[in-house]
Write a structure and sequence with these properties.
The chain contains 14 helices and eleven strands. By secondary structure, the protein is of the alpha/beta class. It folds into three domains: 64 residues; 250 residues, 3-Layer(aba) Sandwich (Aspartate Aminotransferase, domain 2); 129 residues, Aspartate Aminotransferase, domain 1, CATH 3.90.1150.170. The chain is globular, with a radius of gyration of 26 Å. The structure holds pyridoxal-5'-phosphate (PLP). The site of pyridoxal-5'-phosphate has 15 residues, from α5.
């Protein structure tokens, strides 16, 4: 008889060895997480480590112990730093120890979340119900997806399906193609202009991807200017829409953002909902991080109007602190949601009893058929800590950023750039040292160079990880704070380090410029 082959251990001894290894992995992760405040926020991967990732694919195995050792030495220390208390780059959450364990449970159990007659599907439905209620969309249909980009694309896909039908098209059958008339065939798609949707110039780049991916084309995303507060200019939106209609374009959706990437601004969602309603359009809200303000009693008023959205996208891996990947798409009208995605296949049919009796509720409202158990970590963290703690952490982040901003404002060597009403802050170091040239343009370039170098040094020295953006054509430092581990002392240490390194860089650069000028 040939020996049975499996990825499971083959004997009691092998099971025991893997169990012990698993316990060591957990211990190491707990130790690493607890030690984070005393470790660099980021460290570059030494070039000799790269050789490991050049190796050919293994034909035979080295064993779990050996590969874990490789992970421990060569992978674990060289992440991008987002689990660290002084990480503020882009908008990346930390993860939590409990959610890490929940992900282990989810992977260990490994249920298939197309739906089915099983408790994990009930967990996902329950969390979606809670979130719908907290977001002001009780009874909404929804599902977990990988990230904010996917959740937003999802909302826009629903918009195109629903509005296409309202406009006398059959988007599921015809797509965006113009089918020729066929004798005896289906009626031809009415000749109408191109579908377009609207959002502000501050809308995250998902909107461009969505327009392209849904076959509408980037031109279908009409960018509307913002005011000085970085919120969409409602008058400009209305004027643009009227001009587009006159030019034969067909508006189908309005996108609002709750929490823009560059300023953390929240569009006037109520006014956008009015514009959408009066024009008979779909209203989608990108609340990737900002929608979670709904969990904060102090700040939820900023979201006034969000509850009128037809669809809402938000992440839990940003301000919800869940490990990647974890985002939610909600659609107000469950029938519209299902109509946009349901498709039948003989092998997926449900029976009245047995495993398939639960049907495919998630497959019917999204693109993915095979889905993991993302909802478990959210369910466990919410049950363990309660939603109020999520709100309190959001308030803590905003307070820390506002205090940091006050320190910037009070210091002559820093300049705040743009509004920072919430947890996103753009600023630059203003070199006290001279650029060696009085021309405004040359000095501005000098300031850009100093800030670029300052950012790289702060990261490379492991002090902290802010990121950057471009504001009015100039390089600026940017902190987007969704970090539940950051203490007030961390914020102070980051401020002091930025000042010290900023002085160091500007002194070096001005000496260099002086020498070049000679
Ligand atoms: C406002 C906004 N929308 C969408 C996204 C995309 O989300 P994700 O990175 O989860 O795909 C982000 C990410 O930073 C964001 O800040």
């Amino acid at each position: 008889m040939t020996q049975h082959t499996t990825f499971d251990p083959n004997s009691d001894a092998e099971w025991e060895a893997l169990r012990l290894l698993g316990h060591r992995m957990l211990d190491d992760l707990f130790d690493a997480t607890r030690a984070l405040p005393h470790t660099p926020a980021w460290r570059p991967m030494p070039s000799h480590k790269a050789a490991l990732f050049e190796e050919a694919g293994p034909e035979t195995g080295a064993g779990a112990e050996a590969v874990y050792e490789q992970f421990r030495q060569h992978v674990l220390p060289y992440g991008n730093g987002n689990w660290h208390p002084r990480f503020f780059g882009w908008v990346q959450g930390n993860g939590t120890p409990l959610a890490m364990l929940a992900d282990l449970l989810a992977s260990g159990m490994n249920p298939h979340l197309a739906g089915f007659n099983q408790a994990p599907a009930a967990v996902e439905q329950q969390v979606i119900r809670w979130l719908g209620e907290w977001m002001g969309m009780p009874g909404a249909s929804g599902l977990f997806v990988t990230g904010g980009t996917m959740a937003n694309v999802h909302g826009l896909a629903c918009a195109r399906m629903a509005m296409g039908e309202r406009l006398g098209r059959n988007p599921r059958r015809d797509g965006v193609q113009h089918w020729p008339a066929q004798a005896g065939g289906d009626p031809v798609q009415p000749t109408q202009g191109p579908l377009v949707f609207y959002g502000s110039t501050e809308t995250h780049s998902w909107a461009r991807k969505a327009a392209e991916w849904l076959g509408l084309g980037d031109r279908a995303f009409v960018r509307v200017p913002t005011g000085a507060d970085h919120r969409v200019d409602i008058g400009a939106l209305q004027a643009q829409m009227a001009a587009d209609r006159a030019a034969g374009l067909v508006p189908f959706a309005v996108v609002g953002t709750a929490g823009t990437v560059n300023a953390g601004a929240v569009d006037d969602l109520d006014a956008l909902a009015d514009v959408a309603a009066s024009n008979g359009l779909w209203f989608h809200v990108d609340g990737a991080f900002g929608a979670l303000l709904a969990l904060s009693p102090r700040h939820r008023h900023l979201l006034h109007g969000m509850s009128r959205a037809d669809s809402l996208a938000f992440d839990l891996h940003k301000w919800g602190s869940m490990p990647f990947e974890c985002a939610v798409a909600l659609v107000r009208d469950p029938a519209v949601h299902t109509a946009a995605f349901r498709s039948s296949a003989a092998y997926l049919g449900a029976l009245p009893r047995g495993v398939s009796a639960g049907g495919q509720p998630f497959n019917d409202v999204g693109l993915d058929l095979t889905r993991g158990f993302k909802a478990l970590k959210v369910w466990m963290q919410l049950k363990a800590d309660g939603v109020h703690k999520f709100g309190a952490l959001i308030e803590q982040n905003i307070e820390q950023v506002q205090r940091f901003a006050q320190r910037l404002d009070a210091h002559p060597e820093f300049e705040r750039v743009g509004p920072s009403p919430l947890n996103v802050l753009c600023f630059r170091y203003l070199p006290a040292a001279s650029s060696g040239n009085t021309s405004h343009e040359v000095h501005a370039e000098f300031v850009d160079e100093v800030n670029r170098e300052l950012l790289m040094r702060v990261q490379e020295r492991g002090v902290a990880v802010p990121s950057s953006t471009i504001a009015d054509g100039r390089f600026v430092l940017r902190m987007a704070h969704v970090n539940h581990r950051t203490t007030d002392a961390d914020m102070d240490a980051v401020f002091d380090a930025l000042l010290e390194i900023g002085r160091e860089v500007s002194a070096e650069f001005s000496v260099n410029r002086g020498q070049q000028a000679r």
